[in-house]
Amino acid sequence: MYTLNLNQMTQQEFLDEYWQKKPVVIRGGFKNFVDPISADEVAGLAMEEQVESRLVHKKDGQWQAAFGPFESYEHLGSENWSLVVQALDNFSEEAAEMIEAFRFIPHWRLDDLMASFATPGGSVGPHIDNYDVFICQGSGKRRWRVGARGEHVQFAAHEALLHVEPFDAIIDEELEAGDIVYIPPGFPHEGITLETSMSFSIGFRANSAVSLLSAFADHLIDGEQGGQLLEDPNRQVVTHSGEVSNNDYASIKSQVQNLLDDETSFKKFTGQFLTAAKHDLDILLPDEPFELTEVSNLLNSHAIKRLGGLRAFYFEDTIEQGLCYINGSELAFSAEIAKGVKLLCDKVMLHPDDLGEWSHNAAFIELATELLNQGYWYLAEAE
Ligand code: SIN
Ligand code: CO
C-alpha cells in the first residue's frame, strides 16, 4: 500500500496551496519507496504492440525521439537515453497501486500512470505539459529543474518533441527514491538523470471546451441527434435584408444552447466521454462466462478488482436514477443497488466485507456477473 506523506500538510492544505497553482518538491512523499516494476519489465512492455512508449535520446548533440514498440535497446549504450511507457496502470497491477495514494483527487481528473526509465544524462528535454503531474522518483537519482509559469517560447527539437527555450529555475533539486515533485500545467521543467533512474508520473487531465464540443458533436452525429433545421414559420417582412436581427441570432444560438441544456443528453455524453479509455485496456475475458449462481458464491469468498485503467464514474444524481458510466458507455441498473454500484466506482478492490449485503442482492449479482464476463472486473484472492 502506498501512503502519500505530505510532510505536515493535510491533503486539503496541499490542494489550497499548490494544486494548479505552483510546483513543489515533496521530500519522502513515499517512505521506503521500492520500484513497483523493474526497468527490465518496463523495457519489455515497450516492446509490445498495445503499449504506448517513447524513446528519447541525443545523437551527435541532436534530440531524437521514436515511438514503440521497440525491438532492442542495445544500440543506445549506457548513457543519455530515456524510455517512457504510458498507461502503466493498464499493464501492471503493482504499479497501479501507486494511484491509490492520490484518491483525494477524483478519478475523472486522472489521466494515467507513466513510467520513465533513464540512463545517466537521459532526459526528454525541457518542456511544458498541459497536465498536473506528480513525478515520483524511484530508484536512482534525477535532478529536476522547474521554471515559473509565463511566456515561454516552445519549438520542435524533433518532430515528436516540443521543447521550451532555456528557463530560470524556481526549483532545482535532486530527487531520490520516494521524493515527489508536483508540477501544475504551464510550468516549464526538465529532469536530468544523474544515476540510472526509474520514475513514475501520475498525470491528471483536464479538457478544453473545444475538445468537449468536438466530442459532443461526434456524440450527436453517432446518435443522429441535433439534426433539426432551424424553423421560422412566423417570419415577418424585413426592410434590411442584410441584417441578422437580434431575434434571429437568438434563435440560431438557442439551436446550439438547447442541445447543451438537455441535461439528460449532455450528462450521458459527459459520462461516456469521461470514462472513455485513452489507452488500450488489457482486457482478459474469462475462459468460460460466469453463471449467476457461481458469482453469488464467489462474491462471498473472493475480492473483485477493477481492471487497471478502467474508468467507472457516476454523477451525484444519476446514481440514484440507476445510471453510471463505464468505459465509454452508459450502464443502466436497478436503482435499489445504487449504493453497491457506488462502491464499484469508488473502490478499485472490493472484499466480501466491503460488499456486505450486496453479495446477496440478485440485481447486484447480475450486474457483477455482467462486469466479470466483460473482463472489466476480475476475481482476486480475498486477503
Ligand atoms: C520523464 O519522466 O522523463 C518526463 C516526465 C515529465 O517531464 O513529464
Ligand atoms: Co513533463
TrEMBL record:
Species in which this protein is naturally found: Colwellia psychrerythraea
Keyword Iron (UniProt): yes
Recorded superkingdom: Bacteria
Membrane-spanning parts: none
Pfam family name, one: WHD_ROXA
Lineage of source species: Bacteria, Pseudomonadati, Pseudomonadota, Gammaproteobacteria, Alteromonadales
SUPFAM superfamilies: Clavaminate synthase-like
PANTHER family membership: MINA53 MYC INDUCED NUCLEAR ANTIGEN, RIBOSOMAL OXYGENASE 1
InterPro entries: JmjC_dom (IPR003347), NO66-like (IPR039994), ROXA-like_wH (IPR046799)
PROSITE patterns: JMJC (PS51184)
Keyword Ribosomal protein on entry: no
Domain JmjC: from-to ranges: 94-221
Cofactor: Fe(2+)
Keywords, in A-Z order: Dioxygenase, Iron, Metal-binding, Oxidoreductase
Gene Ontology molecular-function annotations: 2-oxoglutarate-dependent dioxygenase activity; metal ion binding
Protein name listed in UniProt: Cupin
